[in-house]
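Forwarding these from the shared drive since the link keeps breaking.
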Amino acid sequence: MKKWRTIGALVTAGCLAAVSLTACSGSDKNTSGLDGTAQLAAIGEDTVTVQEGYFVTRWQQARYANMASQLYGEEWYNEVLGTEDHTFQEEIKSNVQGQIEMLHLCRQHAADYKVALSDSDEEKVKEAVDSFLKSNSAEAQGAMMADEAVVTDVLTNYALYDKLYDTITAQADVTVTDEEVECRTYDYVYQALTTTDEDGNTVDMTTLEQQNYLDALETIVAEAEKGTDFETAASNAGYNVAEHAYCAADEDSFSGINSEADKLKVGEVSQVIPVEGGLFVISVTSDKDDEATEEKREEVLANRQMEYFDQQYQKWADGTEISWDEELWGQITFEPAIKAQQ
């Protein structure tokens, strides 16, 4: 299921006004050739028009366009996404479908939680709409099938979603214990035991080279065990020290090393730790990284609140008849290309 917390927050923060769009490839008004009043989807009691679906799709396209076009060119949206079998355009459109469904279901259930936009909320939406329309040319608005009515309706839905999300998650009975989020920090040195040949292939170093590096790291361990500061011992052996913070139950690229750090007390230094393709030596510097711990606490709390909201939302979705006109939906594309002005 798609999650739209960040996108919802954009509206009430007034950030949409900064999303100024320009049509590319010489596009004119109403280039879609589609009837904006036609029904694109039915979400329970709500009808989604082609205009609404088109506007949201093109807006989301513009959010990604600048960065993606730098990497993949002007037709970035036709590129296959990573190892998946679908394109960027297909992925974004799938996200837009989930987003539109969520926004409409939230609007339908807002009254259940006594949630409504205040005069202040409505004024923020109006300011965002006015700024958006003022920032975009008639050609750009035409390329997005945007007018005051549809932009107002869509942004009102976003703002209402944002307020409902806060109301529902405030009811969530979620707790985060210190043990779950406690973060530790260690310094480390790393030595790769592979190199790259002239053809760009990764190859193992010779046995002699590997032994020399192992000896160098064992020297660091020996010096540290005699009382030499870890950073100094590393420097004496020709290494720079790096730092890594990790949190309980975290899975990161250092997971194997983190488990070794768990065996050490603050100030203790490990033996040489062999990993695939290299060697590590670590020294624990902090049993509790307060800043990292609080950041992790906020992250875990936010995720659990989102899970709680998703559970409530899924009940609505399961009890609602939702249908899309797939033929019409297939006619909404990223052509002609648009991008956000920089």
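-- next protein --
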Amino acid sequence: MKYQTLILHNGNEIDKATGALNIPIYQASTFNQEDVEIHQKYTYARSENPTREALEKTVASLESGKHGYAFSSGMAAISSAISAFIEQGDHIIATSDIYGGSYRILTQFFNKFGVTTTLVDTTDLNNIKDAIKPNTKLLFLETPSNPLLKVTDIVGCVEIAKKHNLITILDNTFMSPYFQRPIELGIDVVVHSATKFIGGHSDVIGGVTVVKNDEYAKKIYFVQNGFGAILSPQDSFLLLRGIKTLKVRMEESQNSAIKIANHLKTLDWIEEVYYPGLNSHKGHNILKTQASGFGGVLSFKTKNVEQVKRIMKNVKLWAVAVSLGGVESILSYPARMSHYAIPKDQREKMGVTDNLLRLSVGLEDPDDLINDLEDAIK
């Protein structure tokens, strides 16, 4: 079965009780138990819910995993995945230019429990090797990274991790399972902010985690059930609906992103364009070996900060907002939005400067989106 068919026919699309072509919203907190001496599948919705289960199985299938878990947000998924594998005194190695929320939870929360984190440029595998300590437990990756779209060699990271008995977790939000499936490359745990491309309509907050290993699955389920940061039936339904159009949305966003990135490179008021679909992008060739596409997100730097402010103030079609992956195009300002939690000096060291803008390309005509940016700068 080809992947675009799998999206719609993965065994979790029809309600077995009624034959409905959409899994119903099972808006129930608890379930009647006919015989308390006999274990039944559904008892309390924090532990199991039919709508959430359908979503979890769908995402696991699309990510080439075996077990999926849905959480109340992307950060809940990331935090729970990390929590499942670390203990006091452990050390984590993470991609340096990660999402600001991931940076914050690693450096300002887990550190309270004696867990330390070293941030490195994972595009150079030697940086990972050099950062490994006797107590290193986990390698947390984000590729392509947010917001500079840096590409990390996944297979190379897996080889290092296996040699040193490290758990690998990869944030696959930017690519979605449609373009990149890290479990197929040996990654242990994949996480998503499902709010983004998986949902695709800017109407739901959610996160998902996928694993293939049964023991790892038990650890993550223990945290999901214990912490209780579960996704609601309503939001699970919305994500199931969004997934049905994943293929067409991702393809359209990517096609427009390529056109916009190539055009932006020709403009004299732009300093640099970051998009892995460009032949000139560092990591372009690596991404071609580990993904089937380049995604719908790009970033660029203007010649000065005033131009950034002018664009944000004057665009008409681009929504100036936090988040990405929706059907509408979104323009974000990482320095004041997604990466504001990172101290300014650290942020600038990462390359997230005040003249950087990130674009999440939606389903509008790319020529209209280009004209809107040019009109805004004028």
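The chain has 14 helices and twelve strands. The first strand starts at residue 67 and ends at 71.

- D.
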